[in-house]
Amino acid sequence: MSRSDLKTPAAAAAGRVSTAADAAGAARAARETVTFPVTGMSCAACQARVQRELERTPGVEEAAVNLLLNSATVSFEPSRTSPERLVEAVRATGYGAELPSGAADLAAEEAERDRQAEAEYRSLRMKSLVSLALGIAAMVLAPPPAVALVATTFVMLWAGRHFYVRAWQAFRHHAADMNTLIAVGTGAAYLYSVPATLAPRFFESRGVPADVYYEAVILIIALILLGNALEARARRRTSAALRALTRLQPDTARVSKDGAEILVPIGAVRPGDTVVVRPGERIPVDGEVSEGASAVDESMLTGESLPVEKGPGSRVYGGTINATGAFQYRATTLGAASALARIVKLLREAQASRAPLQRLADRISAVFVPTVISIAIATFVIWYLVADVAPAVRAFTSAVSVLIIACPCAMGLAIPTAIMVATGRGAELGLLIKGGAALERIRAVNTVVLDKTGTVTEGKPAVTDVVALGGRSEPELLALAAPVEALSEHPLGAAIVTAARARSPELAPAEGFRALPGHGARGTVRGVEVVVGNRAMMTDAGLDPSPLDGVAAGLAAAGKTPMYVAAGGALAGVIAVADTIRPTSREAVAELRGMGLDVVLLTGDNRRTADAVAHEAGIERVLAEVLPEGKVAELERLQAEGRVVAMVGDGINDAPALAQADVGIAMGTGADIAAEAGDVVILHGDLRAVGRAIHLSRRTVATMRQNLFWAFIYNVIGIPVAAGALYPGWGIRLSPVIASAAMALSSVSVVSNSLRLRRAAIG
Amino acid sequence: MSGTEWLVLLGGIAAIAWVNWYFFLSGRATATAAARGGADGVQEVTVVVQGGYEPREVRVRPGGPVRIVFDRRETSGCTEDVVFPDFGIRRFLPPERKTVVEITPPAPGSYEFTCGMGMFRGKVIVE
Prior knowledge:
The complex is a heterodimer. Chain A is of the alpha+beta class.
């Protein structure tokens, strides 16, 4: 069955809508709904079969297969099954199914949108230029009224037709919009001019001049169309960042199967497939490197400008570009679950959201058009009653000017265009800002609370100091300790192994390994008995650790964990391991403090380690030894002091604290760069992004306010001037043509002002 | 004041009154429709997109998903997106085609949908 009836890219993007209430307890009641296209069903029996199969799949609570829409909507427990498994289940029945909405579908949608927009732009430009030429000719040549009548009728029916059609449709719905104003304004001028052309005597005999307004009608339509064309073009640019993201994913992947490399469409890649990437190629799907090494440019996804080193075990993301090396990797998350698709989804949701500032614009635009029409009628009546000379003409042109100059569009565009551009700009900077409300709130932050592990620090221990005794070099000491630690499962041991491998990749084997949990481990390396562990471990082994106590105490005071090493029955040295701070943390903290913000370190770690990290990062206020459940209480206490608090932490452990904070900022790192928690996600683990988010928010809110102010003040000044308020004192009047030029400019200027955010200096 | 002036004055007042009545007071009831159960039991309603949304208000029963078929019968760029801010949905509506949006309202209440720039509005009311 053809999918064309439904299968707009959008329909496949029906996406996941969480059915769980947003309220507390969402985690427990977690139930997700996914809709995906199913192909090949031709009858009710097929439908029943697919439905039965889905209902039998463990973890599925409810399945509804729709034959007409060619889709299945399934609600399931995410802990027990996944969209991937559901798709597999449908495929097992012999029908086709695809994961919903990968980035590729979105790219198709954006391409379709581009075609539409381009066609609209061309048509508007053509119509406006032809009308403009006719209008100028009518003004300069002053043709006989009958000729002008024909030209005007042509322009109204050809170029301005949609104004009247849309105005009529809106009117039938008891609604009024910009089209209403243009249609009523130009329509009135036209309807006045036609009888004045055909029966001028009728007017003159009653003392009313038989004026015609043809060139005004043509020029008004021409100028407004020109404004619409410019606006259509500018509006496209507001979503440029989103469009760039949707185009990242390549169409095909090189999959290695039975020793051969075959090029397959991206939709045919399965989790577990081995994908081959050559130098310079774009990485097709998410996965984990299994063989080879390379550097990968992830800037398009995370905003991180330096290439990221990848080796076996590293995660790679679809849409990023491989630099010089070649490697193979195992495909993991695909389709809607991929990092790229999730970033695109979050960005789209953000762009669909509304900012609190919008409410003001909403309230005004709801009553705007009928109010303007009322003002125009009042203008007519007043001028008719007070004008000494030609009251009908004065009244009429002023009323038409009021209708034409009023611009509800500028007000409607003020906030949404700023949100579009700002969230897109954020994504380019590696910041996913989830919606207009968050965007508006960030600027008010005055206290930034930083989680320690994984936020200020790298989140994984590394060897920081090596002190070797007895004439051994530091690498020699590491080479002795590492084989023993390679067999232990302790995270601190892993740091020693990594450090040793960095100096020489081959480790000697260890024999007779024994671990003493909480103390250390021992084994024989190249015939030498090696003991690695804490002070107690040394005493147990009959060694006197005291010569190294001074060194160890110094290291511990700096927040590091010292590990003693003994070899061949003698003390051999100390290796210190610590969670090192990220290279950019110190600069980021300085920047935040420079912006006048208070920076607080919050951690469950002991005070000594916390103080050491805080000192290194330049943070003065430290809240240490806070249990995970105590973090929320600490934030509440800060908020009770009247502070507006931003909490920066990882999206998993700190999720409750992120939710409690006024602004929750999740560090998307490693396995999960597009974390779901928080109002903002930092995609590249660089703390400097916090300052950028605040800068961006300040700029955006400023832009929103400027837009609202200009859109508002434009109407507040424009309408009375058009109505002739300045005429009594200063003799200033606006012709309807000037009014239409002003109206065309006002919405273009609002969009252009929003577009400036794309280039604004951020941090 | 002359007779014509009186006529203009009274006519103007009447016109203003009518405009405000027509756009603000009348016509509220005509623009709502109730969703019907579709083939698979999901409530379904069609909204015509043409210079606005017809109907502007969709009434649905609580519980379960609601399928809204947007039938866009124009090419004007203004209505090319439909946005459900409460659900984080922004959907492109290709011109002269039907596009399905499915939402699952969590509780009774009113859920707004708008065009991409928030200028045209409609509502899903869960009773």
